[in-house]
Amino acid sequence: MKNYDVVIIGGGPAGLAAGIKAYDYGAKVLIIEREEITGGILNQCIHNGFGLTRFKESLSGPEYASRFIEQVAKRDIDVLTETTVLSIDKNNKTVTAINSKEGIFEVNAKAIVLAMGCRERSKGALNIAGSRPSGLYSAGTAQKYVNIKGYLPGKEVVILGSGDIGLIMARRMTLEGATVKAVCEIMPYSSGLKRNIVQCLDDFGIPLYLSHTIVDIEGKDRVTAVTICQVDQNKKPIKGTEKRFECDTVLFSVGLIPENELAKDAGIELNRLTKGATVYQNRETTSSGIFACGNVLHVHDLVDFVSEEAEIAGISAAQYALNGAKEHDSVDCIAGDNVSYVLPQKIDKNLSGAVKLFFRVRKSLNNCKVKVCVGDKTVIETKKRVVRPGEMEHVLIAEDKIKSLDGNVTVSIEGCEL
Amino acid sequence: MKLTCIECPMGCEIEVVVTDGVVSVSGNGCPRGKLYAQNETVCPRRVLTTTVMTEKGIPVSVKTDKPVKKSEMQDLMQKINKITVCTPVKIGQIIENNLTEDINLVATSTLNK
Amino acid sequence: MYDVVVVGGGIIGGAILRELTRYRLKVCLIEKQSDVAMGQSRANSGIVHAGFDAPVGSLKAKFNVLGNAMMENYAKELSVKFKRNGSLVVAFSAEDMVTLSELKARGEENGVTDLKILDADSLFELEPNISKNALGALYAPTGGIVCPYKLTVAVVGNAMDNGADLYTNFEVSSISGKFGDFTISSQDGQNVKTKIIINCAGIGCQKIANLAGDYSFTIGGRKGEYILLDRECENFVKQTLFFTPSKKGKGILVSPTVDGNIILGPTAKEVDDANVLTSEEGLKEVQEKASKMCENVPFGQTITSFAGTRAFCDRHDFIIEESKSVSGLINCAGIESPGLTSAPAIAKFVVEKLVSSRIDLRFNTSFNGHREPTDFFNSLSIEQKNQLIKEKPEYGKIVCRCEKITEGEIIHAIKTNPPATDIDAVKRRTRAGMGRCQGGFCQPQVAEIIARELGIPLEKVTKFGKGSYLLRGKTK
Q1: Looking at the structure, do residues B57 and B96 belong to the same domain, yes or no?
Q2: Does residue B60 sit in the same domain as residue B16?
Q3: Chain C: nearest CA to A395, how far in angstroms?
Q4: pLDDT tens by residue, B1-53
Q5: Residue contact B5–A195, C-beta within 8 A
Q6: Which chain C residues have a beta carbon less than 8 Å from that of B74?
Q7: Pair A174, A283 in one domain
Q8: Considering its fold, how many domains does chain B have in total?
Q9: What is the pTM of this model?
């Protein structure tokens, strides 16, 4: 059986960044990737806009990935591709995996980093009325067909959901000669980045219908039309506002969910709000020696933050593997007013360094005040110009404040509704 | 004219007023926003990202190495769609010199197959 | 010239086809869709009924009880999962409790064993998630569950292994000739000649009978809508839960499936054609009724919703007989619930009693009723799996990550009788694409494997045959 200090499950942006940092700390590292090449979902995200924060340039997904792939290649990091992890034993830190060369085999680790990414919420979960013909795709599947396989799923498209992948695909399909007739979003705001609305929809004159959803799908063999309808505050369709579009394709971009089946099966504690593991600021889960980072931990909107988070997890995993487990002395981080979740969920006072608390807001606000309270005491108050549910925010708690935390930390935000 | 800045994820709402050919910008959060608004008013440009077909029938991702005129994007797509490139393709490799103006089309991924 | 042609690739047609291959006969099955199990045998609850529901003396009652008793061995021989999980008819009023006693008496007269009336306490003990408004239940331990389309695929596959032919995409447009020399023609000009026709066309039974010249019955369609919950909800209920039938109408059922999902439905709405559209009202009805049956139904774990049409007949019982107007035409029509349960018994009866009265049956001594399981890979030990991966590396490559299905299993489904030729056919046989992501990740890969194995271009791969193509050609 092979032995490693750190085994990383997933060779996407999170796994690669974690691997580099773990190796640089001195750990013997294995990255396990199920696809033929590493890079994860970035390989099919051929649009630009990645790396603005980290590299101060606008890179395409494959370019962003390649910066890390090159760094991994320069190091003596083992990478197993076309290998799928079947299960994790969280106590013995054994990973069972399968591939064509070795069959089913086990790898021993001192620490494990979960970096499996996320998946798209499926259309099936939406219970849309009508037929179930072909031509209904999640936006990511369409992206794979177009960008990786070189095939166009359809020529006349309606998109449900204004998540980033949906917006990106609206532009991509248009550039490849399809007509995108409408993008509809059940919420009164888009969950995608503002700049994507501008350069993916506005640039091409694609209408965005906010507070709209698809109420009917027509077509026996292939989709022939959909009907969209305005919804009220309770997301119930308003009769009389129906619009019918003939189309041969419907793309769904209705949210991403951390792909935590392995973690769940292993009995690792998951958080109800993020659907990812509950972690300390070093990204260690509540199962000792198991770390998590990237979209498997919580869904990020920018890969730059995935890399940053993965580096924390990579170093922490290497420290754990080489120096052994440390006692935790922690307080909880709680989502307060207008905040949907805070990550990490726990701050360990024994760990050194400042803590960047990431959070998402429930609604769009401007002229906001972010408040961090310990118990009823406000310890940090900062201003933000604009916050949106689609864009992750963060606030920094300085190192000197961490040691003296004497209660749970609540993050809340107030401001004017946009 | 109102614009949403796309230089970064902030998405600042920028107000542009053109008087006697002079562009004045307000609402931008940073200098990049000002530049964006000025350019957007005069001649909007975008980096075009797409794929080109290889002789193996598998596409490889490409981008223009500078932003191209927004109005020109669909025409450039027609041009790009006619290109066939031979594998292997290396990231950064120029696929087409001077696709338009002095702008090149470069590969953004590596294809060894 | 075939001895017997079976029209319709559902569970009834499939079971009869397999039964026919026990004898030295030249037989085939014709199916209008691209795969078998595309009608009521697909959108079906998958319940093996105990047999207390059907009126005493009816064909339904007879074949249900016989079929239920046969199902365990039947499924085992075909390597299809079957579970005798028991059924509960739940009462919510004093009137319901009276009905339960009647059902029990009827069931006993039909020959159902071990029926028991439970009080509320014993019911809650069996099913902790049942509604607190439940007063009691009729417990039928012989009730079971089976996957309806896997059973259909298995019977047809086994029949083919024993020499039967299968013609898919064969939509019958005319039937001419008479007993001993029928010609069945399809819309696109294919012909098959046969001595005997067995009409198992489900909702299309009336059309087939009419084409042959028999106008003796009418078939209507009843649409049923279902919601399927994720396997994470396994054990939400253990038994199959029915509402007590009452004048207020029929309820839905809440049941585990053999694959560990929870199925809710079906609604029952009469429709003109094979209408398989889900509707807002229908899905709402399923949710409302399921919430009446159980506390806190985890609707958030819905993975898909679907609809199907069940045929029903104006005679309100199964029609299983040789046509009185067209000799050599055997009708198996109006096979609504409990048709799935009854299938093994119906097949035996049709072949041994009806076909045998027209043709001499001689045993096919090489008949082998055993079929290897399609999901055999999962039942292997790690050593066996590794041995197989050494010989066939494709078994080491996971394609469907949610259900952990390997490329080897997908190729197996494409190459095993009845061959899967489209995305949905692969899904029904292997579960690839049936998990949480609903094929989001693996569909492109499955499509490529199908294209490669069948030697067709990727854009010719369909979701379920005919016009259900996946792609509109290359991007450039």
Answers
A1: yes
A2: no
A3: 32
A4: 888 888 776 778 899 988 887 888 888 888 888 988 988 888 899 999 999 99
A5: yes
A6: none
A7: no
A8: 2
A9: 0.91
